[in-house]
């Protein structure tokens, strides 16, 4: 039997994607990688994201040497024809519907099961079928994954007698601290491959074939398996011990805090989630990490990440167009261009600058600063999803569609979460140091110093009062509208923002 070549997509770069075991490709199969320019020319991606992707692909090709044929082509279809002719090839299940449709349209491609996740698609389908009569709650899924994979378990019970330690993992930043007292995040050293990538991106921009947003500073994320493992070791040793308490906090001068920044190498396939959660559990059992912190990290990887991946495929394609709140406003130009200098609100300007400069922020700025602003102002959720996909180095379709449509923008009407995630300025003030130097005051609803998040919050509740009044988690907040004697002034102040930055 002829050995089939195996095609690696740009987010299938770890050794497990070329491993013949566990329903993988043929043993010692020749490998194909295709650098398709059309991926970058279709939309305005963040420059740092394009750099990281191309650097990771080219580093992987260099590691594989003669085993891989690396083709640069206009499209995947043209690249595959050049690399394989009409020969049959295999590929692991792609991570996007569009890529899966492409693979299905190519008669010569044999589809292998997805790799890079803890839970198989078949096992999730079985689990979802058993829970079909009720909501597919992440908490139920997370507990099932913990049991199935024996993560942080003591026999049949969760370690410490509790499934989650959220109450211990939601502390505000230490009072008066500009940064957390912990070693800085791991950073790579660029090499000649990075130099060549940057040169090519510059040339393509000059030629007008691609256009980017954001800045391409020194690469901050792993582009190789060795770098990814070094980043994981550094996090578990130096930063996981303080991760738990401050995972929901924000500091202007410390955008990374104690977060792992492992989402980028995980989503490139350079790390497997099993090795991440196993290292965290080992650190806890060795006494190096508090249980609450280890559990918080395991929850993000084995809970939320797995949950989002499977919901992406579980929901039908029409999920992409969900817009339960009927939000249709276009994204303003300053947001699309990452023009942080045009923004007055200190929290939004700070976070937008972080995205501009690095293509990354942790989950709370994404949800409670960027996403909350979009939700309050009624921006089109499909456009918001596209923006997050393009502007974050760890942004992929499967990641951002459920996270933005389902959680951030509540556009699915509650299929994924039980309430909209938005707040006034008081939350941001409590969980960060971002309000102190701001021109606005988080407690002011009206007047020149009215916080745009506070006015936006009340305006959002007023606009969707009828729908939200029946939500048990929002009913009390909605009733708060009746206590606002200045509601007309608040709504007027919110309307004044228009399409310009506050």
TrEMBL record:
Region of interest: Disordered: 158-191
GO MF entries: lyase activity
Membrane: present as a keyword of the record? no
- Keyword Lyase recorded: yes
Pfam families listed in its UniProt record: DPRP
Q: What are the alphabetically sorted keywords of the record?
A: Lyase
Question: What PANTHER family does its record include?
Answer: SLR1343 PROTEIN
Protein name stated in the entry: Deoxyribodipyrimidine photolyase
**From which organism does this entry originate?**
Streptomyces himastatinicus ATCC 53653
């Amino acid at each position: 039997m002829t050995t089939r070549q195996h095609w690696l997509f740009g987010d299938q770069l770890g050794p497990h994607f070329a491993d013949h075991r566990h329903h993988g490709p043929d043993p010692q199969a020749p490998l194909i990688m295709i650098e398709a320019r059309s991926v970058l020319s279709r939309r305005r991606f963040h420059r740092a994201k394009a750099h990281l992707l191309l650097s990771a692909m080219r580093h992987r090709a260099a590691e594989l040497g003669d085993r891989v044929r690396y083709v640069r082509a206009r499209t995947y279809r043209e690249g595959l024809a050049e690399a394989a002719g009409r020969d049959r090839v295999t590929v692991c299940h792609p991570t996007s519907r569009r890529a899966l449709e492409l693979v299905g349209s190519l008669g010569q491609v044999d589809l292998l099961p997805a790799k890079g996740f803890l839970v198989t698609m078949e096992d999730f389908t079985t689990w979802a079928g058993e829970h079909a009569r009720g909501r597919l709650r992440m908490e139920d899924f997370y507990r099932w994954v913990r049991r199935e994979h024996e993560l942080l378990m003591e026999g049949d019970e969760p370690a410490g007698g509790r499934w989650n330690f959220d109450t211990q993992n939601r502390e505000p930043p230490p009072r008066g601290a500009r940064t957390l007292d912990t070693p800085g995040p791991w950073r790579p050293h660029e090499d000649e491959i990075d130099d060549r990538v940057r040169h090519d991106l510059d040339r393509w921009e000059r030629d007008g074939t691609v256009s980017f947003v954001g800045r391409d500073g020194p690469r901050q994320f792993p582009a190789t398996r060795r770098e990814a493992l070094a980043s994981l070791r550094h996090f578990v040793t130096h930063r996981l011990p303080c991760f738990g308490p401050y995972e929901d906090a924000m500091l202007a001068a410390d955008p990374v805090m104690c977060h792992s920044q492992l989402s980028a190498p995980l989503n490139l396939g350079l790390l497997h989630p099993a090795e991440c959660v196993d290292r965290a559990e080992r650190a806890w059992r060795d006494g190096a990490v508090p249980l609450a912190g280890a559990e918080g990290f395991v929850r993000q990887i084995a809970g939320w990440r797995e949950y989002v991946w499977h919901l992406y495929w579980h929901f039908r394609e029409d999920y992409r167009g969900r817009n339960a709140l009927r939000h249709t406003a276009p994204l303003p130009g300053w947001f699309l261009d990452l023009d942080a200098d045009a923004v007055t609100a200190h929290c939004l300007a700070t976070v937008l600058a972080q995205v501009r400069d690095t293509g990354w922020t942790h989950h709370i700025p994404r949800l409670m600063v960027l996403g909350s602003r979009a939700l309050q102002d009624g921006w089109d959720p499909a456009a918001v999803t596209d923006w997050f996909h393009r502007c974050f180095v760890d942004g992929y379709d499967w990641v951002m569609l459920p996270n933005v449509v389902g959680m951030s923008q509540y556009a699915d009407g509650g299929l994924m979460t039980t309430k909209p995630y938005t707040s006034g300025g008081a939350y941001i003030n409590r969980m960060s140091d971002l309000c102190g130097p701001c021109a606005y005051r988080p407690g002011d609803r009206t007047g020149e110093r009215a916080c745009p998040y506070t006015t936006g919050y009340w305006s959002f509740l007023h606009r969707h009062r009828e729908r939200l009044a029946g939500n048990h988690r929002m009913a009390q907040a909605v009733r708060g509208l009746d206590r606002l004697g200045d509601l007309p002034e608040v709504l007027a102040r919110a309307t004044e923002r228009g399409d310009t930055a506050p």
